[in-house]
Amino acid sequence: MGTVVGTVEDCREMFDVSAQTRITPFSSTNQIGNPVAYKLVRVAGDGRLVPATDEEILEVNETDMHSASDACQSLRYLPTEGSPFRLSQLEETSEVINLGLLRADNVEPSTDQVNSQPEYSEEFLQKAQQDESLVMVSTPPDANIQFRNENNMFDEDQVHHEPLPFSSDVQNGCDVNQSNTVEPSSPKETALPAAAASQKPDFALVRGEICLDNLPIKALQETFRATFGRETTVKDKTWLKRRITMGLTKSFDVPTTNLTIKDNKLVGIKDKSNDVSDDVRATNVKEAPSSSAYHVNGHSKDASAHSLGVNHYWATEDLSCEERAAKRVRKPTRRYIEELSETDDKSVVISKDQRLSEKSEVRSMSVSSGKRVTVTRVVPLGGSEVEVPYVSHVRRSRPRENFMALMECHTSCLEAKATGGESNLLNSEVVSPGSVVKSASGPIQKEVSHNNTNEENMLTEADQDVEADHVDSSGNSSDDYNNTGAPMMQGGGVRRKHHRAWTLSEVTTLVEGVSKYGAGKWSEIKRFSFSSYSHRTSVDLKDKWRNLLRASFAQSPSNNMGSFKKHGSMHIPVDILLQVRELAEKQSLVPPNHR
DNA sequence: CTTAGGG
DNA sequence: CCCTAAG
Q1: Closest CA to A192 of A110, A286, A125
Q2: Which segments carry the region annotation Disordered (predicted)?
Q3: In chain A, which residues from 484 to 503 place their CB closer than 7 Å to nucleic acid strand C?
């Protein structure tokens, strides 16, 4: 297992103990089978590598899965002692697949991915060229736009940048790596300039020089915002510059301690993503140059350069540092983070192109030699896409909708017990019939819909219904639940696992319960009043009560029209609503006193 | 695990 | 309903 490569590190702030947890590529001999297998190791004080404990792994994954994946991704830039080539190839595989997916719409499946490259970005480049202020860009489509944005930004900030000619003579300066590394013979290399020379830049080109050094912090922050679409409060110039640089170059090999900006240029950083194909190919060769790059700009001041190398844990750093720099009021939830990155993405990506916005979707599935299917998704984090291996820790709770799509083959099995859907499918374990069945026995949803002119009639009907349900329980319900309970969205995902309309009896029971135990004592209400309804968790009760309150108050003013809302939902008898309101008022007023 | 709230 | 943050 072990090629030991320093990746996650320099997180002294984070793991300021003697040991740091880092991620290393899993490069055992038969690793081909699993492109996204990484191993966590801990670097002990003496530099030894110790297998990370589960907790540590968890910690890493939890505290920052993005960064973890980051680190993983950045691995490719490291001079791996193990089998760089293999690693690269693996990367290549997934990249290619990605590419295929990305451009699946306008390109016929071709075994020669390289050939298809040029057209890939053609449209973007064309578009880009029309943009006056566009400086040379050599990044994938999405990044292109970003850059454009960025450059405008720089314009405003009067950052010096000179537009580079689109023709081939632009090798100047920065992109040393590229010119060295790209194989001249590669189809792409030849095809691109030839086909596109007149109307689009060569991919090997480098964008204009950007001088972050001279920018005041404020400008840096602005730049940061422009780059990542969000504000930052960090005042650390160094951090900002580095962060921006990383965002701009979409590269991770920005040394922690040193700016990658040298002589007013981005130095030693190759756009990792100049066009995907390039990226792929360059991955192999990049090793050498990039390692040297480290030496070049890897050490100039400040002793934070570790013996172990450069920090690639920038995502974490991003979070942790930023956090540190500006106390965040509230800890962002995972979802928040996701959304943030999504918005980030959108705000940066100026317009259309669905593919861009779908970036965070599952993007590639690499089927490795074995039967193991690895799903990865790309997380647009801080302006950089990161491929995140779908490992079990990524999401510990119920999988998101689209996950269901992946499970499609099992859906039939699932449908059979749609009601039981609560079980956690995450770990690719097909739900075993046994594990789920239980709750299917609840009262079946009732079709109280029409004929409800008579409330009392309804009520009794409902009650009967409930009883009946209890009797015949699990058997017949499945059909209903499949339709109403787990509607399949177009994408194939499941919107909700089960939607069970509240029967009137349930509502009344709830109201009773509230009157008895008080609103908020959901667990008690559930325990006592709802013991017979296996479903309806305390949360459900709470939610329902909330809805009832809403309904009651919403409807009360014009009492007349209230009794039934025309929409399908249940028509809650007015008297119940009245009860609800009474209770609500009582409860909201009384608590201070006694009761 | 339970509540409270936002989505 | 679902998902989370806080207790």
Answers
A1: A125
A2: 435-456
A3: 496-500, 502
